[in-house]
């Protein structure tokens, strides 16, 4: 009666267990060929049986191992797969996904993978060694039978060992036949590992330092490509020119020039007055090579100083009124800015005011569309005046494109995932940041532009220091002229503080809000738009003959179906 009950139980349970598995690996056969250069050519024949329709299988193999506390990155190269496949990197693993996404199969299916792993023979004092995890433990099914054969014409196998069982154990459930080993019943968490010792009188040719490391060096160099390319462009085409001679602050038509030296420290000129008729926006762009909102704010104040616009603070807003003064004396970018203010007045006049007056808040809708025109005309003026060797915005756009292409090529060669692993991704990020710094500096100034730049640096420095103004306090008109320049150079707060210390009121053209110029600039900045500008191997690197176990050595990983 008990036997009948057992038979009935087996009949009910066993089909359920089998049916619960979507597939199983009926055979996993590996052939390891030790090449003369210490690489391993491995051919895996995997026989699967699909109980439900499947596209195929995937096999993943670790490519990074921790050896004596350091990361050892091996190179795995797939030579052949008998079915359609894709190759990707996930974490520390190389993933070979085999099958056609448009085709499914049921029943038995055989897959064959051949790949080469570099520099996998270990060098010990009394033998050389191959220590390889044949199957890996991370499979989502059982492996009914596993076998491995190790062959080489370049050395003699003088000893061997085989482990099959739960990862980390020294269970030697293998059967040895000549140069082959077999194991059966590798269920969940179990794997097969082989270790073979080779004689020291072998004919193996060990790779030199360069052969072992050239690929790593190449990755570092390619990661450095953005910085190297951009740095080279800057060195050749991005360094400012400068006059050779004693009086370098006078414009010279036929002068001898040279490039500025890398890290060259130049004399700081004593400048505390407007420079060569430059407007605040020109000064601000010359010093940092770009047009920003501080330059717009400063140029609006300059138009007020020159009498083209009146500005008045009312509560938390600012009123602008266009005067009747003719604008023929203005430069094109100044005319553009003035015209846009005038158009804004016509577009959004205050209720109860004349049609020549509007507020900053109501200027936004119309005026914001015209900032690009102001920027364009200012860049064009600086290029045509031969202050810059071309338009800074166009040059920057070109070089940023070159840098982006260099980065794209780097990622295209190695892949974003590969570069995200280990140090190469960090090097690429640092390299890209350095390239950005070079790109920022690339719009080259002409010799005259560099002369103006040095004077601008001097003006900013001495405006920031401020102490000299006690000696020229009587030059009130000069302070009126320099006020917008201080805005574009970012030192207006210091200037306002010094003016208070000298008992000087803010210039009349700022409408009485000179002591709070920061609020005016802040409101312009907020009202107007800105000027655009995985798993791993468990091997520690030791010998498989001393404390070897299932899961030790290179290789391993696992697989699954899809």
TrEMBL record:
<dbReference type="InterPro" id="IPR018702">
    <property type="entry name" value="DUF2207"/>
</dbReference>
<keyword id="KW-0472">Membrane</keyword>
<keyword id="KW-0732">Signal</keyword>
<feature type="signal peptide">
    <location>
        <begin position="1"/>
        <end position="20"/>
    </location>
</feature>
<dbReference type="Pfam" id="PF20990">
    <property type="entry name" value="DUF2207_C"/>
</dbReference>
<feature type="region of interest" description="Disordered">
    <location>
        <begin position="542"/>
        <end position="562"/>
    </location>
</feature>
<protein>
    <recommendedName>
        <fullName>DUF2207 domain-containing protein</fullName>
    </recommendedName>
</protein>
<dbReference type="Pfam" id="PF09972">
    <property type="entry name" value="DUF2207"/>
</dbReference>
<keyword id="KW-0812">Transmembrane</keyword>
<feature type="domain" description="DUF2207">
    <location>
        <begin position="25"/>
        <end position="167"/>
    </location>
</feature>
<feature type="transmembrane region" description="Helical">
    <location>
        <begin position="398"/>
        <end position="418"/>
    </location>
</feature>
<feature type="transmembrane region" description="Helical">
    <location>
        <begin position="424"/>
        <end position="442"/>
    </location>
</feature>
<feature type="domain" description="Predicted membrane protein YciQ-like C-terminal">
    <location>
        <begin position="272"/>
        <end position="490"/>
    </location>
</feature>
<dbReference type="InterPro" id="IPR048389">
    <property type="entry name" value="YciQ-like_C"/>
</dbReference>
<keyword id="KW-1133">Transmembrane helix</keyword>
